[in-house]
Amino acid sequence: MNIPVLVTMVMTLLILGATLIALPSLSRPTVPLGVSVPSTRADDPVVRAALARYRITIGLLMVIALTGALATLQWPLALAWWALGLLAAGMATFVVCRRPIQRAKAEQDWYAGLTVRLVAPLSPVEPAPVSWLLHLLALGLTLLSALVVTVAFPSLPDPLPTHYGADGVPNAWEPKSLATALLVPAVAVASTVLLATLAAVLARRIDPQPGDGHPGVAKSVRDDQRHLLQRTLGLTNLASAALLGFAAVVPVLNLAPSALSVLVWGGTALTVIPGVWLILRTARLQRDARRAPSGSGPESPDDDRLWIGGLFYYNPSDPSFTVPKRAGVGYDLNLGHPAGMAFLVGSALLVLGLVVAPFIFR
Questions:
Q1: Domain residues for 188?
Q2: Does any domain span residue 319?
Q3: How far apart are CA 32 and CA 343, in angstroms?
Q4: Cα 269 to Cα 263: distance, rounded to the nearest angstrom
Q5: Percentage helix, strand, coil, to 5, in the chain?
Q6: Structural domain tally of the chain?
Q7: 3 state DSSP class of 172
Q8: For 136-185, what is each residue's pLDDT tens digit?
């Protein structure tokens, strides 16, 4: 087994497991494990016990996944199957561990006597500043890679290597042509533009944000999260552009297989850093929100019935294609919207195809 591949396998499962463990810490304090509760109950003993049970179980599942992956290193797709298994088991654990909170909330009527507001809008939302400098740097890297490949095209080998194994040795070739040589740079430019466009769209998106009994704290967290998301998107775009740009000029560099393997897997690992940074900073923001003094405004209950298992939003009456996540960072699809369901089915089929295709076309 190639050492960089082994390290990547272990890091992938560790990051996935750590993200699952941190999931409650990334969510608003008033939706522990996806159950809407008043701010006065966010630290209830039932809530604390459910969260502890969830985190311990995820830790055990992560150990099982790591052990299983290391025991099946000889199978190329072992990592994909163990990662998917850990994700599925983590979601099931989330659904099971939230039930005591649901029962206590219903039996004790936690919202009784509290002032509530189903929609508690905060002050008008200004567009978050897009990290245009990072996106422009990313675009510059991809355009530079296209230029390098174009200039060096006459000296490129024929046939042209188009795929490399985990050990850095080419294992697929195509007849040399400008279209083949510029395929990866073109993909790099397109993905860079797409991610920058996504950042611009999200910067202007306006989502109703509940005050959760702490309007001032909620506004501060919301604004900080919007700025943090934009910086993360910029850094992710730059890291991805650097990796794709490097992949585009690999035929020009003529590196030794061992050096190529280390650089590619190392670059892949670097693209994860912005996401890890986003998780850590978001957890810190939500931790500060949990330390806020007792509620000073109306509570903002969310309808649990619209969230399947606290993870999937289903509301045919909502015209929104996406909604802010209840658990975690970012946005969830509205599965009650035709486009939301179509996107989910398409994504699931794509993932299934990527996993199954190597067994069919071998």
A1: 119-292
A2: no
A3: 27
A4: 10
A5: 65, 5, 30
A6: 1
A7: strand
A8: 999 999 999 999 999 998 888 888 887 777 677 787 788 888 888 888 88
